[in-house]
Amino acid sequence: MKSFAYTITDPVGIHARPAGLLVKEINGHAGSSVTITKGEKSVSAHRLIALMKMGVKQGDTVKVTVEGGDEETAATAIEAFFRANL
Prior knowledge:
This protein is an alpha+beta fold. It has helices spanning 16-27, 48-53, 71-85; strands at residues 2-7, 32-38, 41-44, 61-68. It has a 4-stranded antiparallel sheet, with helices on one face. α1 runs antiparallel to α3 (71-85). The radius of gyration is 11 Å and the shape is globular.
């Protein structure tokens, strides 16, 4: 299991466009399961609507947990996506 924390810098937070791109990035790593946690709430990052319903805003810190066969590669790619887009 690999995990990292990230503080959202996008002024709008995780909204439709970046959430859709994030799900697409995550689904590219089919060998891993990805969970995003904000406070007490955790959702599968493979589910677009659940991700958007979290209400993640600028300044919120989320924890991303990656488990599975390619977790090392997936975690690195997903963290890079967060840094570039969120």
